[in-house]
């Protein structure tokens, strides 16, 4: 295990992911985690992340007292990255000062010759003598603690890498986890395998087996488990895994809220039933949702109504199950992912908000408070790409695993204003299907994070078949993104757009104009409401 202690850098998750990509299991905890918790995890190496602080500020976060002594006594390797390096330097009696050069962005560094010969951190210069790295810091190491040597310097002469191999302490002033650091991955690989002596061995197959055993231990032989399937990758993979562990004591519900895409209910139900053999109850609640949404135009009110309705339906489902089984379901499966777990406990003073709270509107309404179900979250240590890999092993069809994300409130956030106005939902479904199918046909679906049509409740004048028309506008949105938090709009070829626009106007009744959304996030959000 490699443990990452998080001091608030925006890149901390990346370190964790990069290490897992090298088939070594890594976990990320707050930078002020107690020594007791660290000891319990028994890591082979600990990486101290970067962060926005200066070690000189009074409340600068730091590893717990006794940490370095414990690491040395137990043969644990420590690598400080950026702020992490500065923490090491300062705590061990060196000097960190505000740098002469504020170094942000790409920077050339060079391995320093000499000293006692071999710089272990780069295996001499085996990783590469010169490299471009990504710096992002104001402070710098001015004087190293005793026993340390400089292993690399930037062109401006600042310390870029240090080590004290006898005490297994290492530091990088730059961010090796960022792709702009040209030999970053090689450096991490060298550190893990050649310096720390770890070997690659962490496999998704083992994760699957472990999780299945955990669930088998947790859920008693007469216990029942429920799960709300959204049609998305996370809940589907979580349910499939739990089903493998406990079979048909899992009971899933899929709700058609009348806000789904073209043929979506049929498509996802066929995957659940025919491909994955999941026990699913499909509830058609379109009328229930749409009658509650009639006339509602405020986006937040729309979301709240949808969330509330989901809770009510889920409650009904649990009561029905209790009658049928003669006992209450005891557990609930949720497809929570690792980024949500990390983000829900940000390091102190990191300035990072609890994105759990930011995203709570993203979950399908939460759960009834009095259900008292125990949670099963089999994906809570995994990143999205790892969940896809796990899904593959569980035979979830590739086309399903690669589907673009779809928001819980569905088309309600893509039909602007009242979702029940005219045939807005039908127009959106048809335009969306044409657009997304064209993207698939062009072979660019996998290069796009999300693509969809939105309904604009605006009537414009047009001319179709020599007739004057007064019809609606459809907007097209396609974005590229790493995680949905920031996004850029996708640059289509104009011929592609021309074809899609013609096809929509010719085939979707009630539309005579198509526009393209060319806004990144920020300032816009991905969805229009
Ligand atoms: P925004 O519009 O906030 O979207 O920039 C970022 C990502 O989140 C998805 N999204 C949602 N997902 N329930 C969800 O499950 C929601 O209420 C919701 N709102 C936005 C959006 O599709 C994009 O991937």
Automatic annotation (TrEMBL):
It is an enzyme of class 6 (ligase). The keyword Ligase applies. GO terms for cellular component: cytosol. Pathway: Purine metabolism; GMP biosynthesis; GMP from XMP (L-Gln route): step 1/1. Residues 202-403 form the GMPS ATP-PPase domain. Coiled coil: none annotated. Gene3D superfamilies: 3.30.300.10, 3.40.50.880, HUPs. It comes from the Eukaryota. NCBIfam families: guaA_Cterm, guaA_Nterm, PRK00074.1. Catalyzes the conversion of xanthine monophosphate (XMP) to GMP in the presence of glutamine and ATP through an adenyl-XMP intermediate. One of its GO terms (molecular function) is GMP synthase activity. This is GMP synthase [glutamine-hydrolyzing]. ATP binds at residues 230-236. Its EC number is 6.3.5.2.
